[in-house]
Amino acid sequence: MAFSSIDDLERQLLETGYLPDRGLATALFLSVRLDKPLLLEGEPGVGKTEAAKAIARVLGARVIRLQCYEGLDVQHAVYEWNYSRQLLHIRAAQEGQVDEQELFGPEFLIRRPLLEALESEEPVVLLIDEIDRADDEFEAFLLEILSDFTITIPEIGTIHAKRKPTVILTSNRTRELHDALKRRCMFHWIGHPGLEREIEIVKLRVPGVPERLAEQVATFVSRLRDIDLAKPPGVAETIDWASALVELGKDELDPETVEATLGSLLKYHEDFENVKKSALADLVMDVVKSGLQT
Amino acid sequence: MAADALVRHVVAFGRVLRAAGLDVGPGRVAEALSGLDNVRIGVKDDVYWALRLTLVSKAEDIELFDRAFDAWFLRVRRDELPRRDEVVAKAVPDAQPGPREIDPDAEAGEGEETPGWTTSESLHTKDFASMTPQELAELKRLMKDLAARRPLRRSRRLRRHHRGDILDMRRLVRASLATGGDPLDRTFRKKMLVPRRLVVICDVSGSMEAYARALLLFVHAAVGTGKGVEAFVFGTRLTRLTPELKSKDAEEAFDAASARVVDWSGGTRIGASLKAYNDGWGRRALTRGAVVIVVSDGWERENAELVGSEMRRLQRQAYATVWVNPLKGSPEYQPLAGGMRAALPYIDRFLPGHNLAALEELATVLEGIERRHAA
User: Fold this and answer.
1) CB under 8 Å, gap of 24 or more: what pairs does A149-157 form?
2) CATH superfamily of B196-368
3) Which of B333, B331, B324, B320 lies closest to B353 in space, CA to CA?
4) CA distance linking residue B298 with residue B352, whole number of Å
């Protein structure tokens, strides 16, 4: 085991540049310990996918990612036959007899993420991203794989996992997932981080960020989340924005810079207008001043 | 704590959660116990997280879990622990039972000759608001055929099809074995059409009640045609009706929902309700790729501007937007009401829907609807 306790895991995650809250650290810890898939839900941009990558770094495992979308099917998720190679192979054999079993053997197989994760000899973290976007049918299929970690290919037979991958699923909750799938998983909801933790995250992820800037950035973003926005900025946006400001050589917020760089925080035009209307300059000055008093 | 006592304690806690409405079976309790095996059970945080991670499976249930946890492990008085239906009920003011127009006995007589019976011919053009209970019952039957007509989208799934346009390579390779690699025997597959998601957001406030009732029959029938139909109703508040429509009779679902969302004194808050939809559901991409139908007379008293801006958000994400306004059935109607006027620029199709003929028009439009606005 790569870590001995939740505290130990927390410390190691931190070393890889990921700052989890206690709940998430416990979730990852138990998911690995109990060998159980972990379902992470939360608003876009709170770091669901990052969490999977971070635990992979701690485990020294490779991330194999399956991005889900509507219409995702077995050919793109599990395997597909390499038809052109098969045809060439028949051609090359000319008059010689080609054995059908050989033609539908492992060397003509194109491995997609799920099969790749099952066949891997090395430790892997299987990240099934945005499972809520896939169709119901695919979810049912996935359930089968997650219960016994086997895949059946009619021409080859049943393939058993060489070693069970660590499985992390993420969902933006566009729809409710099947209870059966949820029953297979541990569930954790990731919310926006508190102010203190967001400051820590910015300092961790943006090298060379001045202390005061990190505080102001996090404070400003948390104020933005209080305004009614179509898409409140997530931690990912906070990090992007802080990086942009560091790149511009700023060590403090000022209204002009904020207005010019607001695009890395707000992704909708309406939100942009909304924030400008709600006296952007005042908000910035307010944040700057509140920082000075502390 | 001795191991035995702990097991009993957690099992009992599981029962408390189940009583509060969480989906906690024996499997989950076993998970919780093995979770606890791996953390320090003397540390409150560890116990809390191990139990929450294994016993809760929905974000909505977290609050309830937290309260139960406090009550059970931190010795808050247990009678303060709410049941789930009480949590819901608390959010609902005591709605007076509205004038129930449909006599339950009348439904039993569906299809029989009764006084006031009209042929389906005149039923066609009769305004929903002036229909008798018997006529509404007949309407329910007619709706079924109508609702089966859904907008379609091309699925990514392939089916074998004699006029398909995608080669079935797996079959072809196999067949080529017999011909030395010459692909002579070709079969084709085709992307099939599947129903496009339909989201219906229906105004059930006073002025709309008669129409909303009829339209929800339509939606109920549509939900019955398969997956991908979502229904919401609003008055002063918005609520999701899909689960109720699946499990209950349309009438029952309607009455329960309108009791929840209509403040008899409060009027209609269209803008705020659309916003609640966009924030709570649209953001989770429910709108994406869907045909969204808003059913309302457009009488917004508070904030017409909000109706416009929320419709813009909606249109930007939806495949197409349809507004059904029963008032449009009257030839003199002009969309001058503030909310309606603000919404118009963001509507792809504007239809009446005040009688069955108008609903047929709606079904026809839905079948052939295409994306009109730029993405």
Assistant:
1) A149/A118, A150/A118, A151/A78, A151/A79, A151/A114, A151/A115, A151/A118, A153/A79, A153/A109, A155/A101, A155/A104, A155/A105, A156/A104, A156/A105, A156/A106, A156/A109
2) von Willebrand factor, type A domain (3.40.50.410)
3) B324
4) 12
* Residue A174 Cα, gap to closest chain B Cα (Å): 4
CA distances from B314 to B274, B335, B348 (A): 8, 20, 11
What is the CA angle B126-B131-B137, rounded to 5?
Answer: 110
| Strand, coil or helix: B357 | helix
Residue-wise pLDDT for B155-210, tens only, equals: 666 777 777 777 787 888 888 777 777 777 777 887 777 788 889 999 888 778 77
Low-confidence ranges of chain A (pLDDT < 50): none
Residues of chain B predicted below pLDDT 50: 1, 76-119, 121, 374-375
Size of interface A-B (CB pairs under 8 A): 111
Q: Return the domain boundaries, chain A.
A: 6-79+109-189, 195-293
pLDDT one-digit tens code per residue, B320-342: 899 998 888 887 788 777 888 89
Check CB contact under 8 Å for B169 and A81: yes
Chain A interface test: which of B53, B189, B246 (most A C-beta within 10 Å): B53
CB A238 within 8 A of CB A274: no
Contacting residues for B112 by C-beta, under 8 A, at least 6 apart = none
- What is d(CA B140, CA A142) in angstroms, rounded to the nearest whole number? 39
d(CA A209, CA A215): 10
CA distances in angstroms from B33 to A4, A156, B73, listed in the order given: 19, 40, 15
| The pLDDT of residue A178 | 81
Domain boundaries, chain B: 3-90, 152-194, 196-368
- Give, in degrees to the nearest 5, the angle at Cα B173 between B167 and B176: 110
Q: Give the pLDDT confidence score for residue A210 in this predicted structure.
A: 94
pLDDT for res A66: 96
The verdict on a CB contact (< 8 Å) between B180 and A173 is: no
pLDDT, position B21:
80
| Residue A1 confidence (pLDDT) | 63
CB < 8 Å from A in window 241-270 of B:
none
CATH architecture of the domain with range A6-79+109-189:
3-Layer(aba) Sandwich (3.40)
State how far the alpha carbon of B221 is from the alpha carbons of A283, B14, B153, B233, B246, in Å. 50, 38, 20, 16, 10
Burial A8-24 (b: 16+ CB within 10 A, else e): ebbebbbeeebbbbebb
